[in-house]
């Protein structure tokens, strides 16, 4: 059984490098991968009810135990009243449909509404670690990501592809942890794909008590909700870029967006309130792909966590002519881009929604 994270571990996401480097040194370790379940959430149902059918894919007693254990480890006793309070005033804190969905999920699992909100807050600070957007020789845009997390065994079990449907049709698709109403990775078919990478490793909000207080003061906007808002409301690459560059989020982040037309690929570097940098594909300048880990692209990555240079090297050796979902899988399977904290790899292309895939990753001996 997985160990739950401590506060330190939660915020140490992606600070993983020593093990990763060792693995890279070992060279050709073969990794395994497994598909995740693909489930539906019906947007035509009320927020309180729409997650329940998907949740029942899991053993809810085990899930409750996992969440309670996690909460026990991250929430100090003196913060418990704050957690209760959040449950009581959730509708004032979070916009719809998020408050209703969290309430419904909490009721389905049988834990407190405030507790479920805190689980969502923890998810908020766990998004990592490598995202790539690339344009092939035909102008097709491809988007891949590895999500790394220092709490892998427990999270691995509760990842799924979720098709959000209305009138029986998929409006958007995400890869999510169960109980998470925000989004790290998603696609609006024939429109755009998005992913979120963490920046500054959660230094922005140092501890859970501060986070809870910020939430109660209405100062916090979940970045993962901004991604879901984009999937729900936007219909083009440009609209998403506009949203991501103008909204204020809870934590510094990298927002990666890919569209359907040539040139539509961008990495947006956000500070908490402002947009720091917008980095686009530039085919005339021979920049046919962008690869973002968890460091600003204009400064060198730290020596002890350099997944960028090996990733760039792998992309360049594939080459623009040969890039597609299969070769991007190979790049995302290169160590240490793939490392012992990688939970899943997602491959997507908004122009080819049928290729959307998420596979769980494991390296042997872990
Ligand atoms: C690009 O188009 C050509 C001609 O239609 C096709 O043979 C080739 O497979 C395409 N390449 C990719 C990467 O889709
Ligand atoms: C998570 O990170 C902490 C500190 O960064 C480390 O001590 C621990 O071994 C890591 N856990 C896993 C499962 O890798
Ligand atoms: C995770 O999956 C393993 C095997 O796949 C299972 O033994 C374990 O009980 C699961 N844990 C949870 C919390 O569902
Ligand atoms: C890439 O997409 C094709 C369908 O076009 C699929 O057959 C193949 O399995 C996909 N590859 C990966 C690694 O997901």
TrEMBL record:
Pfam families: CBAH, NAAA-beta. Gene3D superfamilies: Penicillin V Acylase, Chain A. Residues 302-311 have a biased composition (Basic and acidic residues). The active site is at residue 129. GO terms for cellular component: lysosome. Pathway: Lipid metabolism; fatty acid metabolism. Keywords: Glycoprotein, Hydrolase, Lipid metabolism, Signal, Zymogen. Its EC number is 3.5.1.60. One of its GO terms (biological process) is fatty acid metabolic process. Residues 299-320 are annotated as: Disordered. InterPro entries: Acid_ceramidase-like, Acid_ceramidase_N, CBAH/NAAA_C. It comes from the Eukaryota. Residues 35-92 form the Acid ceramidase N-terminal domain. Transmembrane segments: none annotated. Residues 1-26 form the signal peptide. Residues 129-298 form the Choloylglycine hydrolase/NAAA C-terminal domain. GO terms for molecular function: fatty acid amide hydrolase activity; hydrolase activity, acting on carbon-nitrogen (but not peptide) bonds; N-(long-chain-acyl)ethanolamine deacylase activity. Belongs to the acid ceramidase family. PANTHER family: ACID AMIDASE, N-ACYLETHANOLAMINE-HYDROLYZING ACID AMIDASE. Heterodimer of an alpha and a beta subunit, produced by autocatalytic cleavage. This is N-acylethanolamine-hydrolyzing acid amidase. It comes from Strongylocentrotus purpuratus (Purple sea urchin).
